[in-house]
């Protein structure tokens, strides 16, 4: 233990109860990494606050001794967001896991940041409501807010930023703010909620999150549309989005995944680019949406169309999509997964996907494409041996070329995974002088650079 | 002309063409006020930039001589936003009125800030697309972005903040930034777009605005539902919003407006609280939505229901709503209009509306209620003689009580009109310590306080 740590640790122990602070090596290890390929780094201590006041006390110690803090949810981040690259205190929100206030008449719920997505939706079911953002992982809602997470339902319901009404945030100096009122809309003051959502722990620590809720649709149908080419599938998806259908998901799965799935799972799905669709709403709206969607698909050269409404059939239909990356990786035992995450304007998507497939071939990297094509966001799942320098070099080259192409056509280096450590090097290219504005905001709100230092704007 | 102005005016004239700068008294007068009751104040000069570069040159003069600048669209603001309370330069964007780039496949359009809402929708019609935010007035899109404007369609499509993809902004020092890429979603960097939208000219001057577009619905139906009480009408509205219907507008008009309309226009509409509705989508979704909406209305005690799809009939049905404030004011020749603008959580709306009606009685002020009830936002139209101190005192008391009530139940002092001069005094009450964060951001981006000084966070 360094002299520095010897100074602040006793004060942290006094500020909290003994079982809220640990330096156990295994706990430090758990908090040294997320699910990404980035190099782990241990914090000096991990704390488990149980209230906003606990977080205030932690931030006061941080302020007094200049100790870095890193908020931590379930550790499912994909770009090294929670790696405490400068050590210090990791604030694990796992004990802040209460659903504090369900207000069905306001379509709002207040949760602590450690509540997970599945936990929340289980509690909401009896009200006929749900929280629609679905990044796949059963992430914590605080973490999802911190990275502006999104996913398959974003084409209909938006990303986290669209679905957080207000945040309670503990700032660098330990003061506590509410970022907004509970009104459905407001033109009062600057939009702090939108600024803190996606700030990745670099501006403050979230201790309460008010989320918007929506009604569970009366009727839901899942569909699958098979195309001769990725370009046709993307054109169909764009036309469906433009037609204002009751579309709640539209996902592209490239043929390489389907081929793998067939081989490993013994299925015989057509090995072609496939759109996985979901429609939700009143029965009438869903039925007319499906009719229109199948017409659009046919116009764009769809060679196979299925639609099912039974819940079990729907789940089965979506399996290939849900298991795509997982099944793909089964082919490569001992390999790790590197996920790319660009998002481009819709009109650029066919070219961007084509370019991505060329990159895989060119650099000899194993990978496939999954796309949230309604939003122009797609991922390559790259299979890499993390300790193999050549693998990492080639995969990083693919990622880098992909990002540069996306930015050159008006897109972004990250559609939903966030910046963390992995996308810092592209911030200047993507944002230009706007990065200086972001840095000015960071400097104004965290002048000592204690809040998740080394991330996001620290490029 | 003061010595101060004598210093910067020649430089401004050199930076622009002569016909871009004026001190004509009538032009200064036009730019001394908006549509509100706030005390006018003249700028020292009005400039008419024609490009981003012109605005850069203006900001460079502003920076060199410390001259305040106030951006100005069409002057339809309702809280004194464009009143140059400290003089200086008003930047009128009327010549920046070009639609620069329509991208139907991306559902995006790039406009200069002086383009108006109606101008844009006229140009978009042939693509089957429209820009959905509708504040009533034919405002400039730059002004709408600056105040985070919204209106009758917000229940379906959101406010300006939800519909601006990216902004080109000239900052206080004359540097130019792009706030975001054109990707439909991004987790890259801080959300500058959302921060600048609603910043009311206090953080930078917008010179280009990328807006999101949506498809014109295949089928549209207008409806009217009459209720025995405001509480019943609001309950029905909330239930409709929660059911995920294809609802594109849901507006409450209180009986006082309907009574006035009948009296002045010779109509015989039922003098009761009335919901004006619009449904849009595929024919199937609209038809099933109407069936469900009328059932919900009936459950909540609806005493009269009409639905029409012919465009002329729809326009006629909506007349009472569109003309409500205007017709109401006809009763009070010589009186001006003061609009209140609170927004509360939906569950608080019946109480808030009841409380508002009590306030009108208690303070003896002429007024009626119009509500964007799907969002919890409602306006009182107060008839006041602006030069009558007693009128102004009583109307201001109503406004102030209304705001305090809204904030006390988790609402906001302004749902869509913005802060400007009129809502500054409530910023501390609404935002608490978050106001310090807003001020820190303002100080970081405009350290000399030259961008629309005396507004918003200057409370």
TrEMBL record, chains A, B:
Keyword Transit peptide: yes
Sorted UniProt keywords: FAD, Flavoprotein, Oxidoreductase, Transit peptide
Entry superkingdom: Bacteria
Region of interest: Disordered: 23-43
GO molecular function: D-lactate dehydrogenase (cytochrome) activity; D-lactate dehydrogenase (NAD+) activity; FAD binding
Top EC category: oxidoreductase
InterPro entries: FAD-bd_oxidored_4_C, FAD-bd_PCMH, FAD-bd_PCMH-like_sf, FAD-bd_PCMH_sub2, FAD-linked_Oxase-like_C, Oxid_FAD_bind_N, Vanillyl_alc_oxidase_C-sub2
Gene Ontology biological-process annotations: lactate catabolic process
E.C. number(s) listed in UniProt: 1.1.2.4
Cofactor(s), by name: FAD
UniProt similarity note: Belongs to the FAD-binding oxidoreductase/transferase type 4 family.
The protein's name: D-lactate dehydrogenase (cytochrome)
Native organism: Alicyclobacillus mengziensis
UniProt lineage: Bacteria, Bacillati, Bacillota, Bacilli, Bacillales
């Amino acid at each position: 233990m360094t002299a520095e740590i010897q100074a602040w640790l006793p004060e942290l122990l006094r500020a909290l109860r003994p079982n809220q602070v640990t330096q156990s090596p295994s706990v430090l290890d758990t908090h040294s990494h997320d699910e990404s390929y980035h190099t782990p780094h241990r914090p000096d201590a991990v704390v488990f606050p149980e209230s906003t006041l606990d977080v205030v006390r932690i931030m006061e110690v941080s302020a007094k001794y200049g100790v870095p803090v890193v908020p931590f949810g379930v550790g499912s981040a994909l770009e090294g967001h929670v790696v405490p690259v400068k050590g210090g205190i990791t604030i694990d929100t796992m004990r802040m896991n209460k659903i504090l206030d369900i207000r069905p008449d306001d379509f709002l719920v207040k949760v602590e940041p450690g509540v997970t997505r599945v936990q929340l939706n289980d509690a909401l079911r009896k009200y006929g409501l749900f929280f629609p953002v679905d990044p796949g992982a059963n992430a914590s809602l605080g973490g999802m807010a911190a990275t502006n997470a999104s996913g398959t339902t974003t084409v209909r319901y938006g990303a986290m930023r669209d679905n957080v009404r207000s945040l309670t945030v503990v700032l660098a100096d330990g003061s506590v703010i509410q970022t907004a009122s509970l009104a459905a809309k407001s033109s009062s003051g600057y939009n702090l909620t939108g600024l803190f959502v996606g700030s990745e722990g670099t501006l403050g620590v979230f201790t309460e999150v008010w989320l918007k809720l929506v009604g569970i649709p009366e009727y839901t149908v899942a569909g699958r549309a098979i195309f001769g080419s990725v370009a046709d599938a993307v054109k169909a998806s764009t036309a469906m989005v433009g037609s204002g259908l009751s579309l709640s998901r539209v996902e592209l799965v490239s043929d390489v995944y389907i081929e793998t799935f067939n081989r490993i799972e013994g299925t015989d799905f057509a090995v072609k680019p496939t759109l996985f669709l979901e429609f939700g709403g009143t029965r009438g709206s869903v039925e007319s949406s499906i009719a229109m969607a199948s017409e659009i698909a046919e116009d764009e050269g769809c060679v196979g169309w299925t639609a099912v409404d039974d819940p079990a059939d729907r789940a089965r239909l979506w399996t290939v999509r849900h298991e795509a990356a997982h099944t793909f990786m089964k082919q490569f035992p001992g390999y790790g997964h590197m996920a790319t995450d660009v998002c481009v304007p819709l009109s650029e998507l066919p070219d961007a996907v084509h370019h991505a497939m060329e990159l895989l071939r060119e650099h000899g990297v194993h990978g496939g494409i999954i796309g949230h094509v309604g939003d122009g966001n797609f991922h390559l799942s790259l299979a890499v041996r993390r300790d193999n320098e050549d693998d990492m070099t080639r995969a990083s080259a693919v990622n880098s070329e992909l990002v540069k192409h996306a930015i050159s056509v008006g897109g972004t280096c990250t559609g939903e995974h966030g910046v963390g450590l992995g996308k810092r090097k592209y911030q200047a290219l993507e944002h230009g002088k706007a990065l200086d504005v972001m840095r000015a905001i960071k400097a104004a709100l965290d002048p000592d650079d204690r809040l998740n230092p080394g991330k996001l704007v620290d490029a």
